[in-house]
């Protein structure tokens, strides 16, 4: 990993670049990003539309998440029969979709609350 990605801000450094209170993305293990990207590449090849995941109901992602998670729990080295990709990687991708959809719903609720209160 490049040295420039390492977060080393000290209190005194805040005069140069204010990072206090901001997330340190370098804390996220990069492997999960690669794993989700692998599943997404497969999905884009299969469905041809990189944005189609946004039109799927949350319940379907919840069901897929549990299917892949249970398959992984039964055999941590197992892969999805169709894609050949690890069930754990598929579970991570489904979780990412759910996190994104949840964040969008929360943002929309906040917007509606602000609209009502205005």
TrEMBL record:
Residues 14-107 form the dATP/dGTP diphosphohydrolase N-terminal domain. Pfam families: dGTP_diPhyd_N. It comes from the Bacteria. This is dATP/dGTP diphosphohydrolase N-terminal domain-containing protein. It comes from Massiliimalia timonensis.
